[in-house]
Amino acid sequence: MNNVFTEVKDLLTHNLRTSGIYIAFVAIILLFTILTGGTLLSPENVTNIVLQNAHILIMALGMILVIVGGHIDLSVGSVLAFASAVSAVLVIRMGMPWWVGVIAAIIVGIVVGAWQGYWVAYVGIPAFIVTLAGMLLFRGLTWLVLNNVSLSPFPTDYREVASGFLDGPFGTITVGQGEGLMAVPQTVDIFTLVIGVLAVIGVVVSSLRSRRTRQGYNQTVESMPLFVLKLVVVSAVLLAFAWALAYNRGFPIVLIIVAVLILIYQVIANRTVFGRHVYAVGGNLSAARLSGVNVRSVNFWIFVNMGFLTGIAAAVFSSRSNGAQPGMGNMFELDVIAACFIGGASTMGGVGRVGGALVGGLVMAVMTNGMQLMGVPQSSQQIVKGLVLLLAVAFDIYNKRRAGTVR
């Protein structure tokens, strides 16, 4: 038992960059749960948090690779608006099928990513300047495409992308009869619970395989009690999340999109040559060149990938908002970039994890949702977000100084 306590202490003190965000996330959830009288964790609100922030989580998957590669992308909000505008014109104004709009948004994102990647990778202009120009350029194109007017509504099938639910395939379980004369029995969707159980099984199997692989290479692993404790905590969280979704409206379709992308980008970042090259370029550019890494190609595809994910996020967000407006996507870059830095990414590049960016995105989502439930003015919300981002970067610098990398 003493060994477990020692390992937990080491985890909290020597690995602050990775463990600190999870501690902060739990603390923020507890704080806003208390301040909102439990409303934050109500099944309906948990579902709303997923629906309202899916586009941020999707873009964070791309932004983490941009930041790890030593760059920044300030244009994602404008690119999302531009892709949404093109989709809206095709579907609403021209009457094309809903799936044409989705594909068009993704293609626009890819083309924009290739455009910006070319200037960064092959012309050599810093990404900060290229994407700052892109923020202005694609915002202007959004106004031009929409002719400075909003377009709505999208057809029902398009709206289902971000607002639809998968419920009922396996039936439901009645867990309550409600109250009053007009009470409606409260049911829980079995399909959503099954997905939650499968997610737990996947986490357990993946963790066991990872542990055995590390042991096979004689790498240090945590003690079995601590390993089991971590699995129990993660499993409990996943099952509670699945129960909240099942108790409300079922499994959101957009969550399937987000989950699939998370799995894909976990593999890309950790188990592919491209992922290793991104970390190499961001960690030590000169060493990456000497090792034979095609730096230009890596930088180009980093931005193509960012554009691809922004296109998907555009389809999701326009579906959620049921239209396209000239001002949509404004300040989204703040939330996406903040998610990555809060999740442990380094301002110098070379450091950052997909999981950390997702938790950082959820931190921003919970803070925003909690402040909205409390009726905090929009101006104060922006102040809080700015301070949190500043503290996250300060925490990164503090960690480097502790490690002796900053003098």
Care to give the gist of this entry?
The protein has helices at 2-14, 16-35, 43-68, 76-93, 98-123, 127-146, 156-163, 190-216, 224-248, 253-271, 273-283, 285-290, 295-321, 332-342, 354-373, 378-403, and strands at residues 165-166, 172-176, 186-189, 251-252.
Structural descriptors:
74% helix; 407 residues; globular; mainly alpha; 16 helices; two-stranded antiparallel ribbon; two-stranded antiparallel sheet; single chain
Q: Can you offer a commentary on this structure?
A:
The structure is a single chain. With 407 residues, the protein is mainly α. The chain contains 16 helices and 4 strands. It has a two-stranded antiparallel sheet. Strands 2-3 form a two-stranded antiparallel sheet. The two termini are 38 Å apart. 39% of the residues are buried. The mean pLDDT is 88.
SSE blueprint and pairings:
Elements: H1 2-14, H2 16-35, H3 43-68, H4 76-93, H5 98-123, H6 127-146, H7 156-163, E1 165-166, E2 172-176, E3 186-189, H8 190-216, H9 224-248, E4 251-252, H10 253-271, H11 273-283, H12 285-290, H13 295-321, H14 332-342, H15 354-373, H16 378-403
Antiparallel strand pairs: 1-4, 2-3
Helix pairs in contact: 2-15, 3-9, 3-10, 3-11, 3-13, 3-14, 3-15, 4-5, 4-6, 4-13, 5-6, 5-13, 7-13, 8-9, 10-11, 11-13, 14-15, 14-16
Question: Helix-strand pattern, N to C?
Answer: HHHHHHHEEEHHEHHHHHHH
Please tally the β strands and state the result. 4
pLDDT below 50 for ≥5 consecutive residues: which ranges?
A: none
Instruction: Describe the global form.
Output: globular
Largest sheet: 2 strands, antiparallel
Output the radius of gyration: 22 Å
Average residue pLDDT: 88
Q: Strand order across the biggest sheet? A: 1-4
- Content of β-strand: under 5%
User: Alpha-carbon distance between the termini?
Assistant: 38 Å
